Amino acid sequence: MTRQSGRPADESGRLEKEIRTYDFLDANHVWYERIDHEAAMTMEVCEEIDKALEATICKNLFLCNRQETNFYLLMLPGHKKFKTKDISKQLGVARLSFAKDAYMEEYLDITPGSVSVLGLINDTENHVQLLMDKDLVQDEYVGCHPCINTSSLRLKMDDLLHVLLPAMHHEPIFVTVEDEESRIS
């Protein structure tokens, strides 16, 4: 896995939603590096990519309330465990659960295994609220998929927070996802 600067020189065979992601990043003058790889379907595979990217790879969970009327994209460090009751309590919503794949495709134009904050580019009607673990903002770089899980990008966290999210018209709600170690001590 080799890090390359910017979009692929040869875009043949790439999906339109991936190209649209590079167009968005370039239009907003955001620096990024890219690694192409086999489909990353597990956090174990993502850990290898994380090392090559030298960035925090996030676990991205697409969630909804019980009534399936409110949708959330939760970004948290890969090593943290999602506890539905903790996040539900912080948001003051009925118990959160994983949203159906059909909603993910409809609102974010993303399929399972490719969930990424960059999918919010496609959520022009703001159906999805971004939730970010507060610890993520401490990282200089964040890793994410360009709406497809056969490539991963390294972005500056500052660019994500101050350039990309405003350009996507999404503002994060910061939540606290406890480390297992801090729960024990």
From TrEMBL:
Residues 37-161 form the YbaK/aminoacyl-tRNA synthetase-associated domain. The keyword Chloroplast does not apply. It comes from Wujia chipingensis. Transmembrane segments: none annotated. It comes from the Bacteria. Belongs to the PRORSD1 family. Keywords: Aminoacyl-tRNA synthetase, Ligase. InterPro entries: ProX/PRXD1 (IPR040285), YbaK/aa-tRNA-synt-asso_dom_sf (IPR036754), YbaK/aa-tRNA-synth-assoc-dom (IPR007214). This is Prolyl-tRNA synthetase associated domain-containing protein. Gene3D superfamilies: YbaK/aminoacyl-tRNA synthetase-associated domain (3.90.960.10). GO terms for molecular function: aminoacyl-tRNA deacylase activity; aminoacyl-tRNA ligase activity. Pfam families: tRNA_edit.
